[in-house]
Design brief:
alpha/beta; eight-stranded parallel barrel; 14% strand; globular
Length: 318
Amino acid sequence: MSTTIFLDCTLRDGGYYNAWDFSPDVIQKYLNAMQTVGVDIVELGLRSMNNTTFKGACAFTTDEFLRCLRVPSGLTVGVMVNGCELLGDVPQQVALAQLFPNTATNSPVDLVRIACHVHEFVQALPAAKWLNKRGYKVGFNLMQVADLTENELRALARQAKAYPIDVLYFADSTGSMNPKHVAEVIQWLRREWNGALGIHTHDNLGLALSNTLCALEKGVTWLDTTVKGMGRGPGNARTEEVAIELAEQRGHQVNFVPLMELLREHFVPMQKQYGWGTNPYYYLSGKYGIHPSYIQEMLNDSRYGEEDILAVIEHLRA
């Protein structure tokens, strides 16, 4: 049986709520808690050149910043690049050289994941060769797969086969998938892609955990989670729940005390402050395949009342 890779991306996906500005104390407690619950990889933020507004250190996750952290042994460090940053005016290899000035041997980063919309995917693929040559493990996250037909998805997976990609992820970006749909997407991808598969779920319909566990059952080996589900819109599958399931599956004894302390001291108060988690608006957006960012923006803007938000959802649905 293939080994399951447990990846926590709280500091990256959760950053959409607090501008990637996590305190050093929270980051250290987070790292310690991840080690004790059996997480394999921590994606500690984005690697980006986009610095037009204030953002915290996890929006850039530079090697200099990472070297200041005490990363417990056994945890692999990852960062994510938005595919659009590799397709702008700057040539792709120049952009990559700016983002990754060091080879993997000389960097705290082991894994680089590139998140792509469907229309960006093929153009971004050559980045895998550049990163692989410099010693990085490479993941590609294909976003918004829920709307794709079997032929469209298989065509993309076929293209990916020509590149040194360590894991191909599919993301339920609008949170509109259910376990049956997840199983179908895995089946389609498997017709072309023989490498490792990963899943990144959103909780609009309250199905992030069910979808993640369904994927695990169907042979997906890389699972994304975030602490307390902290992530864009309604958030993601919760690390604490998947940790319980994986500990049982792996037959491992894990120590949940540091994670429970982290929740009580930091993430429960943060959730009260920022308000992620599913609600009827996110549920509707998941049902109609509307990106949760629209809902998140409106909920954070006092100009929009209930009627306005529902009218916008209805308009976007049409």
